[in-house]
Amino acid sequence: MKTNDTYHKKAKQLKKHKTLATSFFVIMLVLYITMEVTIRNHTAIWMGYVKAFAEAAMVGALADWFAVTALFHHPMGLRIPHTNLIEKKKQDIGDNLGAFVVDNFLNPETIRPYIEQMDISVTLTKWLDKESNKQIIIEETSIILNKILEDLNDEEIARFIAKKGNELIQKVALNKVFASILQYLLERKEHEKILSFLLEKIKYYIVENEDTVKQRVKKESGFFVPGFVDNMLANRITVGIANFLHEIEEDKNHRIRQEITEHLYKFSTQLKEENKWNEDFEKIKSGLLSPENLNQYANDIWQNIKATILKEITNKDAAFFNYLHKTISGFALNLKTDQGLRDKINKQVKYNAFRLILKNKATVGNIISNTVGNWKGRELSEKLELEVGKDLQYIRINGTLVGGLVGLLIYSITQLL
């Protein structure tokens, strides 16, 4: 809407100034005709001077009208050579404009003073000092990350995870992995904690289920064995086993513990060295990690990761927002108090700005050249006429007046001769 208003405003101004310039020509034409008719009936010296002024002014007006019009159009629709120059020479205009900008604006001598005056660290410090600007960074970061995640192809990501996961798993010998884990636990005596836990649970289970033991003893004993004997026997069995388990649990050097540890060490060695275990684990791996299962695992993993990240970056109370705000605030504080950091930032910005401008100045020239060259000739001509056409109408006005004065001067000299 604003662009259309600007266009109509400029078009209206151009038309107004064209009318003004044309009116000067019309005035000179009327003046010339008036003098020509009047001189036939009344002879006066001054009339010749006025006629000469008007005659030369018309010539100047027409000449400058032709010159100004020829820039943007064919005058009176006549395809006279070297007219409608803007439309015909748009590529040359683009090339020359691009070269002009590069040579005069993007050279080291021109840009160095401006870059040296830059103090981006101070500007950045003041900007980050406002809480609203910190929130802008956080919100924009959230929006960008959210957009990136939403635009990702879930199927491709899942396939990538499945592929890399499969490559990794195929290189892994599960039997050796489990053997290493077991040896690690044994060396750190972590198995002792597991064994103590199991002994306690078994002991508790036996004590709590003494009635079950009694029933089993009664079932296995003969009919001639009295019930109190069965109960006593069951009690002795329960208490004996519980006491035995308690001894193993309390005595870290108990023979049973040592035997279990020795068996576990032997088992870890067998896991690592015997082909049987390698084959068994490969079968398990092939079954659990079939292509279908692996793809499903990968998809589930990715969906969980994606959902977790999306939840973090969209919930303003999440740890992500708090961490980001804390990081930005910390950086802002360092920037405000650390002169060395500010100097380092300024130095890097100035160096890279200077280097990038000079490195890409040819690209800037090409962009200008290609942009102008790709415009339609008529469109470019209209754009330029709207921008400078108003001022060019003053050339027509000046041409009218200057032409008249030159004509008057020539006529005056002629009369003196």
UniProtKB/TrEMBL annotation:
InterPro entries: DUF445 (IPR007383)
Membrane spanning residue stretches: 20-40
Keyword Transcription in annotation: no
Coiled coil: none
PANTHER family (UniProt xref): INNER MEMBRANE PROTEIN, INNER MEMBRANE PROTEIN-RELATED
A Gene Ontology term for the protein's cellular component: plasma membrane
Protein's name in the database: DUF445 domain-containing protein
Keyword presence, Transmembrane: yes
Keywords for the protein's UniProt record, in alphabetical order: Membrane, Transmembrane, Transmembrane helix
